[in-house]
Amino acid sequence: MKKSVFDLQAIKELFTLHRQERADRVFKVALTGDALLNNPRLNKGMGFTYKEREEFDLVGRLPSAVNSLDEQCARAYDQLQSRTNNLAKNTFLLSLKGQNWVLYYSLLGRHLKEVLPIIYTPTEAEAIANYSHLFRKSEGLYLSYPFRERMEKDFLHYIKGKTFDLIVVSDSEAILGIGDQGVGGIGISTAKAVVYTLVGGIDPSRTLPIVLDVGTNNENLLGDKLYVGWSNKRIKGKDYDKFIDTFIQLVRKHLPHCLIHFEDFGVDNARRILETYRSKHAIFNDDIQGTGAVALSALMSAVGVTKTKLSDQRILVYGAGSAGVGIIWQLRDAMIRIDGVSKEEANKRFYMIDKDGLITKGFGSKIRHGQEDFVRPDEEWDDNDRHDGKIGLLQVVKKVHPTVLIGTSTHAGGFTEEIIKEMAKHTDRPIIFPLSNPTKLVEVDPSKANDWTAGKALLATGSPFPPAKMPNGKDYIIAECNNALIYPGIGFGAVLTESKTISDSMIIAGAQALASLSPALKDPDAALLPDFGDAPHVNFEVAVAVAEHAVEEGIAGVKWKKEEVRERVKERIWHPVYGTYHYDASGEK
């Protein structure tokens, strides 16, 4: 296992020092009065000093007291807590973001684990579902199919005079488990961009959320008189592909070093777009690559505990959609690159099960694109293995004796007591990852899996769960396979190095960096992944590893030496602190 240069405590100390360095900086600002107070990037609110209030004509526009950022955060947190439900809290935070970026991100950073479910899943899903009824102001760039002929004009007008490192884009077809949400998908693009800043360190002024409004097949939206998007059925086929290509070519032409993060596209479109463009531009699909990367990190931590190799595992994936296939692809590529096995040998380590049972060659036309390499031969199975015409999960567990069981099925309770106990009969430390979201759809409650294996299971989940109890009474912390532990760092590393693409080996390097920080490597009964509260520090290490690999691989657009990468990453991290302002007509606006 690759060792990290710093442990988490050392990284935290580095962040504290760098944050103070930024707070000591002096910024030249050209705005005054209401123009300054209404600019969320520059506004300090009650944080403006008396000297700054004099210099920027703010004395009469603010109450007389001066508050520290700590005091502002305390007030904002009290206001947040006064909201009676999470949707109201989501709306409050969105309003705060529109007023003062430093205060917004500082507040979120201080209460990271508490607020993430409010600004992202599950609350953001509710906000998106009600987008047209909650609409107050635009949040990013809306590129609509009816106005496709003027897409370049609208795009250029928006980016004029600005610099962007990151675009987060969605066509809203598969939003957070609630499906097609039309133009409301701008909310997921905005939320993901926030996470990139919050735990990845990307300057929020250099992020651009976009929704591609290509219609909706959601009948509730089509029948809603207040729907603010294009009220038309989704375009598809050649029209859809041409629209997507026009968008991507615009980015390639005008923002050639800008990372494109694709979010919540339908499974077929997502994989086709990724395969078509990933060699031509730096693009990343979190639903496929991010999910696969964090699952790989957790599995690398687990095999570190069991003292085995990735290629030693027999891996059963229950759920063969985009997440399941994305995980399999990532694990397979890691086996090839890390363990040196052939692609054919790696493919044999996997078994995929969907609603119709184990995917075998007999599925014929039902085999979907992306699944082909992992289809099992029919001759491996006889009639005794089949029940109601299909080879079910229990039958596969009994015959294959998997060492790893991964759930991406959204089949609540799919990992039954019989299945878990059968698996535990044949492996000392069964590795069990019920990753489906939300918690009500998880394949097994991790506490039950822990009890059914007498505390032997190595567990990771897709949602946060309370600790399980070990037989000795000790708490077993359940690792959360949260994509935000890794994708912001992967993106930041690619952005900093102006990488031409995001290669599989860059993603694996990031996954190895995350796995190297696993608490389980020091204590085999500890969590397989770091706590999400440490996500900013973890993503720093991921970004360094990804950037170093881009430089080594020769796909970086910058001419850096590997030994200077860590310092370069540190220099570019955006921290939510104010600094000191001086008026200068040529300064920031």
TrEMBL record:
<dbReference type="InterPro" id="IPR046346">
    <property type="entry name" value="Aminoacid_DH-like_N_sf"/>
</dbReference>
<feature type="active site" description="Proton donor">
    <location>
        <position position="120"/>
    </location>
</feature>
<dbReference type="InterPro" id="IPR015884">
    <property type="entry name" value="Malic_enzyme_CS"/>
</dbReference>
<dbReference type="InterPro" id="IPR001891">
    <property type="entry name" value="Malic_OxRdtase"/>
</dbReference>
<dbReference type="InterPro" id="IPR012302">
    <property type="entry name" value="Malic_NAD-bd"/>
</dbReference>
<feature type="binding site">
    <location>
        <position position="287"/>
    </location>
    <ligand>
        <name>a divalent metal cation</name>
    </ligand>
</feature>
<dbReference type="InterPro" id="IPR036291">
    <property type="entry name" value="NAD(P)-bd_dom_sf"/>
</dbReference>
<protein>
    <recommendedName>
        <fullName>Malic enzyme</fullName>
    </recommendedName>
</protein>
<feature type="binding site">
    <location>
        <position position="263"/>
    </location>
    <ligand>
        <name>a divalent metal cation</name>
    </ligand>
</feature>
<dbReference type="GO" id="GO:0005829">
    <property type="term" value="C:cytosol"/>
</dbReference>
<feature type="binding site">
    <location>
        <position position="437"/>
    </location>
    <ligand>
        <name>(S)-malate</name>
    </ligand>
</feature>
<comment type="similarity">
    <text>Belongs to the malic enzymes family.</text>
</comment>
<keyword id="KW-0520">NAD</keyword>
<feature type="binding site">
    <location>
        <position position="482"/>
    </location>
    <ligand>
        <name>(S)-malate</name>
    </ligand>
</feature>
<dbReference type="Pfam" id="PF03949">
    <property type="entry name" value="Malic_M"/>
</dbReference>
<keyword id="KW-0479">Metal-binding</keyword>
<feature type="binding site">
    <location>
        <position position="264"/>
    </location>
    <ligand>
        <name>a divalent metal cation</name>
    </ligand>
</feature>
<dbReference type="GO" id="GO:0004471">
    <property type="term" value="F:malate dehydrogenase (decarboxylating) (NAD+) activity"/>
</dbReference>
<dbReference type="GO" id="GO:0051287">
    <property type="term" value="F:NAD binding"/>
</dbReference>
<dbReference type="GO" id="GO:0006108">
    <property type="term" value="P:malate metabolic process"/>
</dbReference>
<dbReference type="Pfam" id="PF00390">
    <property type="entry name" value="malic"/>
</dbReference>
<feature type="domain" description="Malic enzyme NAD-binding">
    <location>
        <begin position="288"/>
        <end position="551"/>
    </location>
</feature>
<keyword id="KW-0560">Oxidoreductase</keyword>
<dbReference type="InterPro" id="IPR037062">
    <property type="entry name" value="Malic_N_dom_sf"/>
</dbReference>
<feature type="domain" description="Malic enzyme N-terminal">
    <location>
        <begin position="97"/>
        <end position="278"/>
    </location>
</feature>
<dbReference type="InterPro" id="IPR012301">
    <property type="entry name" value="Malic_N_dom"/>
</dbReference>
<dbReference type="GO" id="GO:0046872">
    <property type="term" value="F:metal ion binding"/>
</dbReference>
<dbReference type="GO" id="GO:0005739">
    <property type="term" value="C:mitochondrion"/>
</dbReference>
<feature type="active site" description="Proton acceptor">
    <location>
        <position position="192"/>
    </location>
</feature>
